[in-house]
Amino acid sequence: MAKPVAASFLTQANALFKKNLTYQKRNIWSNVRLIVIPLYLCVVLVCIQALFDTLVNNSADNQCGCRCIDDKNGDGKCEIRSCGLQFSSQNQAVFCAFPNPPPLLPLLHIPRPETRSVDPARRDSCKRTGSCPVTILVTGNNQSLGATLSENLLSTSFTVNSSDLFLRNLAYTVLGTTSATDYTNYRDPGIYSDLPIFSIQPQCTPATTLPSFSFQQPPLEFQKEVRCVQGLSLWRNNSIEVNDEIFKNYLKGNHEEIVNEVAAAYDLLDTDRSNFNVTIWYYTTYKGDLQDWRVKYVRVPRSVNLVSNAYLQFLKGSGTKMLFDFVKEMPKQETRLRMDMASLVGPIFFSWVILLLFPVILNSLVYEKQQRLRIIMKMHGLGDASYWMISYAYFLAISTLYIVCLMIFGSAIGLKFFRFNDYSIQFIFYFLYINLQISIAFLVSSAFSKAVTASVAAYIYVFGSGLLGAFLFQFLVEGLSFPRRWLFVLELYPGFSLYRGLYEFSQYAFQRNLNGRDGMKWKHFRGSAMDEIFSIIIIEGFLALIVTYYMNRVSSTAKDPIVFLENTFKKSLSPQKFSLKKQGSSVSVEMEKLDVIQEREKVEQLMLEPSTSHDIVCDNLKKVYPGRDGNPPKLAISGLSLAVPSGECFGMLGPNGAGKTSFINMMTGLVKPTSGSAFVRGLDICKDMDRVYTSMGVCPQHDLLWETLTGREHLFFYGRLKNLKGPDLNQAVEESLKSVNLFHGGVADTPAGKYSGGMKRRLSVAISLMGSPKVVYMDEPSTGLDPASRRSLWTAIKSAKQHTAIILTTHSMEEAEFLCDRLGIFVDGSLQCIGNPKELKGRYGGSCVLTMTTSTEHEKDVELLVQDVSPNAKKIYQIAGTQKFELPKEEVRISEVFQAVEKAKSNFKVFAWGIADTTLEDVFIKVAKTGQAF
């Protein structure tokens, strides 16, 4: 048997691409609105930035202080304003110009009195009185050397001199402060605050008094109280002990109650007279200050000077000193607060912007699934690979255009989030993520059957991911206590991986705007967690595609493990099913008609032949739906055997629920048979359904059409799927439109959404016959058509069946007689009879029907008349004087009926009467009632 030439992968992809392109042209404004969404959102962000600039960045508190020094006119307007450090508050000072920053005292950062001391003997008592010493821990390989250096760390005197060498005099002593540091050191809070300065000396008692000092050389003007505090050096055996004492509160889990008890700690390692090697611990954190320490300066120089000076005295004697005169910042220009809102809210804001694509993609996929457009395309030969490739390429193109517009719009209107970071890193990050997003949408679409439900779930995912990222994930990223490995685990969630990448961009852009550092560059790639994020996104994208492929195979074949397990479970129901069969087997054999038995024997013979001219062969096909909610299993098809040759139209008749739709669904691959087998042109529907689709056409019961595509565009698409090209395709489309009366009056180029119900039905039939398929299934093709359109459609179907095997379901007896070469009547999943219309009427129509209408008082007279003509006549209908009788043909002659009626007319008035042979409808009703009664 010759096999049809299936459309190649590229042909299928081209057909779907052209269809999608046409579809998108019809929805061009929807796409434009989608692409322009980033512009709207970026404009909103610019407006927020402008408002923030007005209220915060440009406020007087966030710029160098100024004062009016000339108001000559007395009109309230300042003629001359002067700005500078002398007019500024502590907060304003950091924004002032410092062309020549003042030299400041080098201070040692020491703990507050209530948190000092690691000497167990004095710990509790000194903390109560506030007299704990400032402790410095020392360790190393040589304890005697450590003891010597400890003695040299602190000086024994404090002098104040108002000469020009004021700072040089203060450099002879070690001064400390408990004041927290600030972001810059132009005005050290340890000097300009009201807190005292401490002179750290080896011996100091509470009664010790030290002179205060003042300095009046602008811009350095201050007066400080000086207090004496004891300095204590303690030896520890190794660095582990030092670590334990410094970080003991942190290690206990008291992360919000961190208090340091030491000012500094030194590990002298292998230091000796010829080698100076030291590790320094220094004090830098405060309660509730875990985040800010990273951007504030630290007082390290004095700690370095102490140990260096002590080592120098060890080498050269006590008369040798290395003085530390002052510390000084770099000159700076006047600045203002430059807080970039796009960088601050960028992670959550742009997470929402990019994730907004996810509901669009998911809704499109689920809509095609819900409307069964995906399956109807597959039934007409569209392969899975072509569908997924073109769909992926389309969504990737839309998403890429979306993020390119986002970057262009954001940069054009001046958002520093985009302008300060390398564009190539941004694009690659967004491009990789939209690939992951599309892959996840493909995977998740298999879990939804309704587009509305999918959209709701998708938007919950979008906004939930942004909120969780901002209020949970970002907190964990910035928290020092959260393990980094768990951050990696959280980033496996796609919403958090996106948020982390955007967070890194925002941090680099914020720092660049604030202090001029570089934005995100490729040189920062490894140090910014972006390498980790890129790896996660790439791997998850591939995994999502693999799982999507597997899920698609699960839904389309019985070979996969999950389906195999389901089939195994279903087999557990089989004993009950077959026991029911056996209980009624004796009656089944008795009731089964000769025509049905002959059809089964014919199928059995065809199954033994190597090839056959029959395009459709069903051998003992069964379908049992498993029981649910306590109900028993439902037998839909019971051992159907049927053979349909090419050129024949086989009609399936039966009441609702008889099993016709279940049979069509099995033959079109929507459901799998429970047992038995079926072959289409020699191909097994359980194993080779993808190949069967290439030679199959389907007209479903409900029209599955794209409402924005025209009738002509529908036929071009399905024609390409049937491997039609060039002039052959154009000719086939024209002929198909003419055959179903959709060619004239511009109907062919009208969107299908504007068609009437009958026009949609005709288009569905034309689609099923496109490309001259070898097998066609039609489910009630003429439903909703007017008589003229129905007759035209029948003609088209009858013409198309010359080289096609057609299986047609219908409730119209007229349609069945006109189109079908053979008919089969189904009742409760079983084939009750089979044959052409004339054979069935002859076999089941051994009677004629007499109809007579009289007045109601003469109904009894009519019954007596009929009994005289045919003693075995049976009344089948009676209402308002109209009665119908079934007369056995072997008992009555037509001439006798005419004579009897003429005689009756002389006795009473007969309004109307008639006699007719058995119709196909009568046969259907009779067979259906008999089957249902059994």
UniProtKB/TrEMBL annotation:
Compartments (UniProt record): Membrane
Annotated keywords: ATP-binding, Membrane, Nucleotide-binding, Transmembrane, Transmembrane helix
ABC transporter domain mapped to chain residues: 616-853
One Pfam family here: ABC2_membrane_3
Bilayer topology annotation: Multi-pass membrane protein
Keyword Transmembrane: yes
Main location: membrane
PROSITE patterns found in the cross-reference section: ABC_TRANSPORTER_1, ABC_TRANSPORTER_2
Superkingdom assignment: Eukaryota
Signal peptide: none
SMART domains in the record: AAA
Positions of transmembrane segments: 31-52, 344-367, 387-415, 427-448, 454-477, 533-551
Family: Belongs to the ABC transporter superfamily. ABCA family. CPR flippase (TC 3.A.1.211) subfamily.
Protein's UniProt name: LOW QUALITY PROTEIN: ABC transporter A family member 6-like
Source organism per UniProt: Camelina sativa
Gene that encodes the chain: LOC104711242
